[in-house]
Amino acid sequence: MDEYDRSAIYEVMEQQSVSVAKAGHCTSLPARTAVLAAANPKDGRYDVRKSMMANMNLPAALLSRFDLQFLLLDKADAETDAKMAEHILSLFLSPGEAPKQRRRGGRRQQQQQQQQQQHPQFVDKNVLRAFIDAAKKIQPVLSESLLPHISEWYASTRFDEQQEERLSGVLSSYTTPRALLGLLRLSQALARLRQSWLVETADFEEALRLLQSSAASVSAAEEKSRHKRKADTVSVVFDLLRRSRARMIEEKGSKFDGYVPLEHLEAQAAAVGVSPQQLMQALEQYEELLIIAFNSDRRKIIFVEEARDRDSDDDNIDVDEEN
User: Fold this and answer.
1) Structural domains of the chain sorted by starting position, each given as residue range(s) with its CATH number in brackets
2) Helices in 197-258 by DSSP H: which ranges?
3) Which of 51, 242, 302, 318 has its CA 20 to 30 A from that of 234?
4) Burial degree of 223 (CB within 10 A; 0-12, 13-18, 19+)
5) What tens digit of pLDDT does each residue of 265-323 get?
């Protein structure tokens, strides 16, 4: 999206108006409407290692104006891909001819699916227009009993996000007053669908579910990529530790005391692109799981199982000497 289109959509979504300049005349027209937009990734394919803003090359100020944001990734799925192929092929068939069912399943289930494809359920356009016109005339208001629930949700969500950022150093979502306004707009829209002048708890809960589903679809891919990178780093550190131990056993033989110097491990980690901070985080995780242990000055590392074996061997030697 170029800069001119960005400024135009800012005005429409923020001020509910659009400015038009034609033949030397400038005017502002009302644009009280909902905005439904779709965007493709900048490089043709979504990169889960980057944020949604970086993939679409859109600023956060613009994306935050959309109440709901759903991320649709093209993932390989046998059932979904088969349905997509059948739908595309059905467009090239003669009228009345249904696509062949190639998926496994009962004959009765296949017949039901075929009937649903041949006879889809549609709503008459005149009925739909009348329903929308009636819904536009309704201006729902919030009930007083709902105000404490909304206030409590907003305050608790902001607090949880602050705690998450403090503990993990990563802020997966950020709830702003604009998100609260979007939640209220969704609640009012759901009340209009019920032809109700009052926003009830069920409307707020459904709007909250939509908002949470939207946030989950956006953050799921980033969270999965982040966990994968974290798991890969931890696994790499463990492999480096085992290889360093094996190499020191070959070099020192029986003189090896079981400890691997931390500086030796740091050099190996730097060679594969693991920073000292990532190395220490991985080692501390293994220490909490009682897999490894540090010496008194925390400059040497030993496997806990090996330390126990060496302690038991020393006890046996002491007993033999006493005998």
Assistant:
1) 1-35 (no CATH), 125-199 (no CATH), 227-322 (1.10.10.10)
2) 201-252
3) 51
4) middle
5) 888 888 878 888 888 888 888 888 888 999 988 889 998 888 887 766 555 544 444 44
